[in-house]
Write a structure and sequence with these properties.
By secondary structure, the chain is mainly α. The protein is 67% helix and 0% strand. The chain is built from five helices and no strands.
């Protein structure tokens, strides 16, 4: 039986976290068609596999963020940072204009996700909800 002292008050998910979650889910689901875009056959197979695995793990991280779990925030931040930074070289020698357009859209979204997670309101919510 839980006592009043052991029950933590519910932490409200700030809008910054909700926006980061939505952008993560939308961007991960929207990148799937890029694997079938013209010129995608020039992308090495291992890069596609790693991209798909990272995308699925990012969705798991978004679920963790929805539940205000610190591991979800760390996982999403790390995978978004890696994915965004490793996508930048594709801007200089893209296999096709379709993939260039995708990179132009999704790289800034990645930076926005990172900024939203790093905002003080977001970090405070994860600290309060998951004090580990």
């Amino acid at each position: 039986m839980a006592t009043a002292a052991s029950v933590r008050p519910a932490v409200v998910r700030p809008a910054t976290v909700t926006a980061a979650i939505l952008l993560t889910v939308v961007s991960q689901l929207a990148t799937i068609p890029m694997f079938f875009a013209p010129g995608a056959d020039e992308i090495p197979a291992f890069a596609i596999v790693i991209g798909i695995v990272a995308g699925v793990l990012s969705l798991v991280g978004a679920w963790g963020m929805w539940n205000l779990r610190r591991w979800g925030m760390i996982l999403t931040f790390a995978l978004t940072a890696i994915n965004t930074l490793t996508s930048i070289p594709g801007l200089f020698n893209p296999p096709s204009n379709w993939l260039l357009a995708g990179l132009i859209v999704f790289i800034p979204i990645g930076f926005v996700i990172l900024a939203l997670i790093a905002l003080p309101a977001s970090r405070q919510a994860f600290r309060e909800a998951d004090p580990s």
